[in-house]
Amino acid sequence: xxxxxxxxxxxxxxxxxxxxxxxxxxxxxxxxxxxxxxxxxxxxxxxxxxxxxxxxxxxxxxxxxxxxxxxxxxxxxxxxxxxxxxxxxxxxxxxxxxxxxxxxxxxxxxxxx
Length: 113
Hints:
By secondary structure, the chain is mainly α. The protein is 60% helix and 0% strand. The chain has 4 helices and no strands. The protein has helices spanning 8-28, 45-81, 96-101, 109-112. α1 (8-28) packs antiparallel against α2. The radius of gyration is 20 Å and the shape is elongated. The two termini are 25 Å apart.
């Protein structure tokens, strides 16, 4: 049984909307993660270093987005199984306010510490 104090349909919509936004951001930032060209004639050494640093930051941000998508997918799977809102460690209900703040959270506050 999913968490009795929550509107599961609303939570599902929030999770799906958040996932769609992350996928859109990933698509929009695809160019910033592309390979940096090493043409010394058109780009100076410092500019190329800046471009490489920008690329590295974009890749790190994409990694964070992909992790968030995996967390959302896991939360949606828990909803489908009827386990949404149960702490994965102790099995008690996670506080409704905590789930409203982060619908993909896995543990109650006590087990998260």
